[in-house]
Automatic annotation (TrEMBL):
Keyword Signal: yes
Membership in a protein family: Belongs to the AGR family.
Superkingdom per UniProt: Eukaryota
Lineage: Eukaryota, Metazoa, Chordata, Craniata, Vertebrata
Name of the protein in question: AGR3 protein
InterPro entries xref list: AGR/TXD (IPR051099), Thioredoxin-like_sf (IPR036249)
Signal peptide (residue range): 1-23
Pfam family for this entry, one: Thioredoxin_7
Sequence intervals crossing the membrane: none
Native source organism of the sequence: Eurystomus gularis
GO cellular component terms given for this protein: endoplasmic reticulum
Keyword vocabulary terms for this entry: Signal
GO molecular function: dystroglycan binding
């Protein structure tokens, strides 16, 4: 009987401690869930409203990435985005970052339709920058993996436009 209860107690302790370890691990990894693979070192805001608030407060432009998990073009862009050091660094330091897997109610964020991937910039003055576009006339705000340097230029443009206009 003694052996049986000791075994039961040990099993209980193992179960509790492994659950605790998983809870602690989850706790530590919390911010990663918002990155969704776009960059774990980046601080991501959760909602568009939070993004607008942070942009205004920090005087940094908001970068909004619309994407879907099961979209192969989104996956390809995400990989290129996450692997590019210059983008990751700018995103960490100079932008308020948001990636969304659903549309916002702000129609200004879909001036030419609700396609993915779509990347738009919002000025700290809360103006959606419809003038910062990618290189495809049929989908103005889409980028492909080979357009990463173009996206970097657009990020710099978003930063430059704030400084000159405020």
């Amino acid at each position: 009987i003694m052996l049986h209860s000791t075994l039961a107690l040990s099993l209980l302790l193992i179960a509790v401690s492994s659950n605790l370890a998983m809870a602690i691990k989850k706790e530590k990894r919390a911010p990663q869930t918002l990155s969704r693979g776009w960059g774990d070192e980046i601080t991501w805001v959760q909602t568009y409203e939070e993004g607008l608030y942070q942009a205004k407060k920090s005087n940094k432009p908001l970068m909004v990435i619309h994407h879907l998990e099961d979209c192969q073009y989104c996956q390809a862009l995400k990989k290129a985005f996450a692997e590019n050091e210059e983008i990751q660094e700018m995103a960490q330091n100079n932008f308020v970052m948001l990636n969304l897997m659903h549309e916002t109610t702000d129609k200004n964020l879909s001036p030419d339709g609700q396609y993915v991937p779509r990347i738009m910039f919002v000025d700290p003055s809360l103006t959606v920058r419809a003038d910062i576009t990618g290189r495809y006339s049929n989908r103005l705000y889409t980028y492909e993996p080979q357009d990463i340097s173009f996206l970097i230029e657009n990020m710099k443009k978003a930063l430059r436009l704030i400084q000159t206009e405020l």
